[in-house]
Design brief:
Elements: H1 8-24, H2 31-36, E1 70-76, H3 81-90, E2 104-109, H4 120-129, H5 150-156, E3 160-168, H6 172-175, H7 187-196, E4 201-205, H8 212-221, E5 224-226, H9 229-233, E6 240-243, H10 258-269, E7 283-289, H11 291-297, H12 301-325, E8 328-333, E9 337-338, E10 341-345, E11 352-356, E12 361-362, E13 366-371, E14 380-383, H13 386-394
Parallel strand pairs: 1-7, 1-8, 2-14, 3-4, 3-7, 4-6, 5-6
Antiparallel strand pairs: 2-13, 8-13, 9-12, 10-11
Length: 414
């Protein structure tokens, strides 16, 4: 069992100082914006030497029609069209990111149910459950009618499930796939629901939101409970809860990278073992590049580029599995745009000048890229609620969205 780490004293002090400064300046940022500005970026946050881009700019040829047995749903939190374009430029103007090799492309509208601009809870609920809700609400409509996520419905059909993020695993985007609550801020309650929903693979940060009692119960139920990269690389086939940071991950060594967590999750979920559900498993995996959004809230272009490239390396893992498997649908999109990013490039020097219109979210449409059987259904312009509806159609689900009462949870990890 991993022991609780007490890393919060400095964090709480710096938070208090920042609150005083913000109040003194007459500023009242949203909770989502506020969260991401607390910690200074670690040294080397502009280093992108880890990135290994595609050897060719040639677009992938889409896979032939086949049964969809796996869905890998990649969400770049806060990643707008210009975040992708800026990142591509930093890798070399003639280069293409892995996500841009996906042959089907479209764009997604992101507005919430309530007037204004979406947060990750409302947009995530739309992307997971196929219904609109108000900002801050998780997995339910404004009247608190609870809807099942696409993960939960596929879980009922016997699919394995996983969530991989660099934020706390109980943060808004992963929360919408396996919890239902009226406020995204109730992360301890969200963590309990994620465990009770028996998501098979949970990898990310957020140790502080998981009690020792819940983790002990998880271990007793059959989960491998880990908190280091070495433990992750030594996992046996079977369910796992990996919590690698007290809150958000640093995204630096010695933590596992997002691409390493993604590869681990794919290996576990695709493992053909009789002991764990089925010899020929189907699975649903959501991967979030959580901290693209955090960097954009801070209007930090270097951090945006690094976090987008870390996310793109995870997309690469999804693509490589899909090409081997032949039955995997890969989707890459975003929950909203953050920062109102624009940029231009000096034609003589190649120097980039970025400009931000806000430290918050915007109403801009976001990209979607698709590859695999049924990918053509994600071309063109769509609402974010359309994404899980189309996944449902491709995976043989006849009724979606569906009220939560219509779905029975797995009782135990098998």
């Amino acid at each position: 069992m991993p022991k609780r780490k007490d890393k919060m004293k400095v964090f709480k002090l710096s938070t208090l100082v920042l609150i005083v400064l913000l109040l003194g300046a007459g500023c009242c940022p949203s909770m989502e914006t506020f969260y991401y500005r607390m910690a200074a970026p670690p040294a080397g946050d502009g280093d992108i030497s880890f990135y290994r881009g595609p050897a060719s700019d040639t677009m992938l040829v889409n896979l032939p029609d086949a049964e969809v047995r796996t869905v890998i749903y990649c969400i770049g939190d806060g990643m707008g069209f210009n975040h992708v374009a800026l990142t591509r430029h930093y890798t070399g103007s003639s280069k293409t990111l892995w996500m841009e090799l996906l042959p089907v492309k479209g764009e997604v509208m992101t507005h919430p149910a309530n007037p204004g601009i979406t947060d990750s809870a409302a947009s995530g609920t739309a992307m997971a459950c196929g219904v609109k809700t108000n900002n801050g609400m998780i997995g339910m409509t404004p009247d608190k009618t609870v809807y099942s996520s696409i993960l939960e419905v596929l879980d009922k059909k016997g699919w394995r499930t996983g969530l991989v993020v660099t934020s706390p695993i109980s943060h808004a985007t992963p929360a919408v796939f396996a919890s239902h609550i009226d406020s995204r801020g109730k992360q301890k309650d969200i963590a309990i629901q994620q465990f009770e929903n028996r998501v098979d693979v949970l990898l990310g940060g957020g140790q502080k939101f998981w009690t020792d009692e819940t983790l002990a119960e998880a271990a007793d139920t059959g989960y491998q409970v880990i908190d280091t990269r070495d433990e992750m690389l030594a996992l046996k086939p079977g369910p796992v809860i990996g919590l690698f940071a007290d809150e958000g991950m640093t995204t630096f060594d010695p933590e596992p990278s997002l691409s390493e967590m993604t590869k681990t999750a794919i290996d576990l979920l695709s493992s053909k073992t009789q002991e764990w559900f089925a010899p020929a498993p189907k699975f649903f995996l959501m991967i979030e590049g959580s901290q693209i959004d955090w960097a954009a809230h801070a209007n930090d272009a270097d951090r945006v580029v690094r976090q987008t490239l870390l996310f793109d390396m995870a997309v690469r893992e999804a693509i490589e599995f899909a090409r081997r498997d032949g039955h995997t649908l890969v989707l890459v999109t975003a929950d909203h745009e953050t920062g109102g990013l624009t940029f231009n490039v000096d034609p003589d020097t190649g120097n980039v000048k970025t400009k931000w219109s806000t430290g918050g979210h915007t109403a801009a449409n976001v990209p979607i890229f698709a590859f695999g059987p049924g990918a053509e259904k994600f071309a063109g312009t769509m609402d974010n609620t359309d994404i899980p509806k189309r996944i449902a159609e491709l995976t043989g689900i006849k009724t979606f969205p569906v009220v939560k009462a219509d779905v029975t949870q797995k009782a135990t990890v098998k």
